[in-house]
Amino acid sequence: MGVSDVPRRGAGQGRRFPDARMLEVRVAAVRDVTPGMRELVLTGPALAVLRGRPGAHLPLEVPDGDGAPRLRTYSVWTHSPSRATLALRIALHRPGGPGSRWAGSAVMGDRTRVGVPRNRITLEPRARYHVFIGEETGAVPLLAMLAALPAEAAVCGVLETAGPDGEFSAPHGPHRLPWVHRGRASPVGSRVLLAAVRRLQLPPEPGIAYVAGEAATCRAVVRHLCGERAWPRYAVKTQVHWAAGRTGIL
User: Fold this and answer.
1) Which intervals hold domain FAD-binding FR-type (predicted)?
2) For residue 72, which of 34, 106, 47 has the smallest C-alpha distance?
3) Could you tell me the domains of the chain?
């Protein structure tokens, strides 16, 4: 879900957008979605005019151990301009960096700032069909995108998590995706998810695939779709959230 808990090279005290592009918000609600994921609902007047497309991510200021603000990037789960609210779903890493620690301890009333939403992958409304593939970190933007599709859209795909208690559904809408469980297997270059993708019964003509999550797994899925199934590369949209040794590179 785009959890940037490792500062990028040259980040110093953490990247910052110009103050004019950072929006004041406060935490309106907190709940645990799964044992390893927490949802934080943010509110503030600026969120009523903020605009973003499904699957977007945005920078969030979190305090570091020395009290200085750091920027971390998270995927948007839901956004309601009419209510001036925005929900993030954040993976809780143990041990974690500043973002994970902040999410794990945040309470109602806490104040922070967010930046402008951006997208690396977006829905293709004219696609013959849509294929969503990812593990739990990628599932946040993927399911937000899934919820934005009309009921008549042709949809398939598969998501992966460690076990049944890690599953969650799209925020709304009729579409559902199956989950597979890797158990104690590594999520890096996941063979479990790749095997599930190979089992997908896809039409002979390519659609549009949205692949998000761990870097090596994303690469393996791209090789499968573009190599074994001969899809054109432009039909496979990828968004890498993390890689081995780095908990966030979105």
Assistant:
1) 20-124
2) 106
3) 22-119 (2.40.30.10), 130-242 (3.40.50.80)
